Amino acid sequence: MPSVLLAGANGFVTVTILQALLNQGYNVVGTVRSESKIHYLHDKFSKFVDEEMLTFAVVQDITVPGAFDEVLKANKFDSVVHTSSPYHWNVTDARRGMLDPAIKGATGILESVRMLSPTVKRVVITAMFGNIMNIPKGDWPGKVYTEEDWNTITFDEQALSHPSMAYVSGKEGAERAAWDFVKETKPHFTIMFGPPEQELTSFNTSTADIYDVFNGTSEPRFTTWAWVDVQDLAQAHVLAIDAPAAANQRYLVTTGNYSAQAIADYIWEHYPERAVAKRDLGITYKHGFDTMLRDTLKKLEELEAEGK
């Protein structure tokens, strides 16, 4: 069966990609940053480990030149899926903690594959919606983003001003560097970019953003409104490995545009006991969004009829 190198196998998106690859019959070597990260994956996918479809390798620092050389030399791969990029706000050095792992990690693995893995035919790299979003424009009503768009913030302009900007700049820098790599070196493989269920010793940033609204400790704080279920995103990665049309392409994978308020609205509708006013005041919610909107529109019709 085809063999895949999956970089960053314990990540939020990557664990679901790993499950999808194994379900499709791929043999997978998953890299993690430390031996301790293997235990959870070994237990979760013990069936595939026992069947020798899944093995692991430790790559401690993906920013080091040749970080993936050892695992590439020890295995014969048909494809590579690279999703590794830190996504959290607990950094004191944005360049070292965000930018370097994203950019050097992507270019480093591409160079190692070019030099050491002649059997690799496709490299799939995960980007993010921020790579195409015009952040200064904000919501930008009426704008329809496509794969032709690029983020307009320059690398030095705001990259180090806040961890979120460093994350976006790192992801965009990694993608631009990868396209430059293909253009300049013309490697024996093609690349495919896509946007965007791991061990929960703590919530990853995306999950924490939702949970903090769910438990009432935060208002919605999302800055990006393009959403995709991680299972669909994982399937996109698997399909991209063999799809001929995906060679050297860039795809925006999203189920649509949803506001951050939609998360809060869903929680209020389906988990009304979570609402802060109910907890503090003991109020019972009897009028949902549909009722509120129905009554409001009815009143507006009445006012229209009265000529007001």
Describe this structure in words.
Keywords: Oxidoreductase. Helix content is 44%, strand content 12%. The protein is α/β, with parallel strands linked by helices and 308 residues long. The chain folds into 2 domains: 3-260, Rossmann fold; 275-305, no CATH class. The chain has a 7-stranded parallel β-sheet, with helices on both faces. The N and C termini lie far apart (72 Å). The model is unreliable at 196-202 (pLDDT under 50).
Summarize the structure.
The protein has 308 residues and is α/β, with parallel strands linked by helices. It has two domains: 3-260, Rossmann fold; 275-305, no CATH class. The protein has twelve helices and nine strands.
Topology (SSEs and partners):
Layout: E1 3-7, H1 12-23, E2 27-32, H2 38-44, H3 46-50, E3 54-58, H4 69-74, E4 79-82, H5 94-116, E5 122-126, H6 155-158, H7 163-185, E6 190-194, H8 205-214, E7 226-227, H9 230-242, E8 249-250, E9 256-257, H10 260-270, H11 276-281, H12 289-305
Parallel strand pairs: 1-2, 1-4, 2-3, 4-5, 5-6, 6-8
Antiparallel strand pairs: 7-9
First-residue to last-residue Cα separation: 72 Å
CATH homologous superfamily designation of the largest domain: NAD(P)-binding Rossmann-like Domain
Helicity level: 40-55%
The CATH topology of the largest domain, please? Rossmann fold
SSE run:
EHEHHEHEHEHHEHEHEEHHH
